[in-house]
Design brief:
This protein has a single domain, classed as Peptidyl-tRNA hydrolase (Rossmann fold), CATH 3.40.50. The protein is an alpha/beta fold. The protein has helices at 26-37, 74-87, 122-130, 156-164, 169-198, and strands at residues 7-12, 44-48, 51-57, 61-65, 93-101, 109-113, 141-147. The chain has a seven-stranded mixed β-sheet with strand order 2-3-4-1-5-7-6. It is an enzyme of class 3 (hydrolase).
């Protein structure tokens, strides 16, 4: 039996950078830092799912920054996933969605089951509408939530302003320099659990 050699498509959700540099694009900032943490090439212009986007290609991880607006991320993610499935065996390929999360502390990241509620996150709603987990029983589909804190007031207007206002340099540094180490650890945990099920 050949050795199990898993590969990961990691797609960050957010709004296009640098025009929309806000906490809502926390996944993009974390992805940018993840290239250094994983010791692979920085993100560069490329084409995935027939769209121009930023990509970092490594032997195990393909890191892709979704080029679309957050709320319509699903079709792009689905195309990128289909493209990867043409190149790799589904049984050795995992899809990881990197996204912002109001309910977690800034600087923390956590694995989230695919089936868990989007909790009003329109990017996740769009992706889940475009990709059904039960269609890919051999491939782990998971989410990694990147904490951005949340404002004390919970009315929709305050929350929207909080996630969409320009991000501070200090918070961006946390997302690009600290969060990627947590994400790397979570990816390793995911791989170890997956290997345990296969081998």
């Amino acid at each position: 039996m050949s050795k199990f050699n898993p590969k990961f498509l990691v797609v960050s959700l957010g709004n296009p950078l640098p025009e929309y540099s806000s906490l809502h694009s926390a996944g993009h900032f974390a992805l940018r830092g993840l290239t250094k943490t994983l010791r692979q090439s920085g993100i560069q212009n490329g084409k995935v799912g027939k769209l121009s986007c930023l990509v970092s290609q490594g032997p195990k991880y393909t890191l892709v920054q979704s080029p679309t607006f957050m709320n319509v991320s699903g079709p792009f993610v689905a195309k990128a996933w289909q493209e990867m499935l043409k190149q790799h065996d589904a049984a050795s390929l995992s899809l990881v969605i990197l996204h912002d999360e109001l309910e977690k502390t800034l600087g923390r990241a956590a694995l989230v089951p695919w089936e868990r509620s989007p909790r009003g996150h329109n990017g996740i709603k769009s992706v889940k509408k475009a990709l059904r987990e039960d269609k890919y029983p051999q491939s782990p589909l998971v989410r990694i939530a990147v904490g951005i804190d949340r404002p004390q007031a919970r009315d929709p207007e305050t929350v929207a302003r909080y996630v969409l206002d320009p991000i501070s340099a200090a918070k961006q540094r946390v997302l690009e320099e600290e969060v990627p180490w947590e994400v790397k650890t979570l990816l390793e945990e995911l791989e170890a659990e997956w290997k345990g099920q296969v081998e």
